[in-house]
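Worked example

This section walks through a single chain of length 210. The input is the sequence exactly as stored; nothing has been trimmed or padded.
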Amino acid sequence: MSGPTLVIELAEPLSPVALREFRALMVGLSSHFDEKRPGFFDVNVPAERLGVEDRREEDWRKPFPLPLLGNAAADEELTALVGFNPQREDWRRPFRVYLMGPGVGDESTFEAEHADEPEVEIVLGFRPTHAVNVSACCNREIDHVTTALLTAAVMDVIGGVAKAELLDGHASVVAGLPGVLGIADDDWTALGTAEFLRAWAAHPAFRLVK
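Given that input, the structure is written out below as tokens.
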């Protein structure tokens, strides 16, 4: 993944009913939906469906650097053409959202990501049996916000506890937010509820770890 990832820690396997509700949520939020296996979704989620406004103008154009012209002389018309990419950026926000753990898939990934986490387990009050990763495929500011809000939306349906890696200096900011259950791993990891993720996403200092 080229963007941020959040993890939802689960105390028990998802029931068939919860898995169906999880799938229905992803179908409803997505403009593109591909189910690789039960609980593994390759999706595009427009930011607006999560209540976020993407503030770019409709004619937004990504600039190309003028040094592409090299040392050649350039008239004004050629310079103007090289100054922008006429192809508009794809505004869809691509994600991979997937359940992992024993009996459902990606067991080796789950085991590797949950090895030797005693502090996390103390804060959680349980040892995770399964987890859901919410991974953005892009790394713009809007992708960090939508990752947090999409994770919160999934938690509203399946429960669990969010695990978020923190940047240096963020622990003191996060500690005062609603829904925080605790800070672990020498201030590098925060655990909390869906309310925590929404409060964190709305904070001026918000940024996830890529």
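What to look for: Residues 57-69, 81-90 have pLDDT under 50 and may be disordered.
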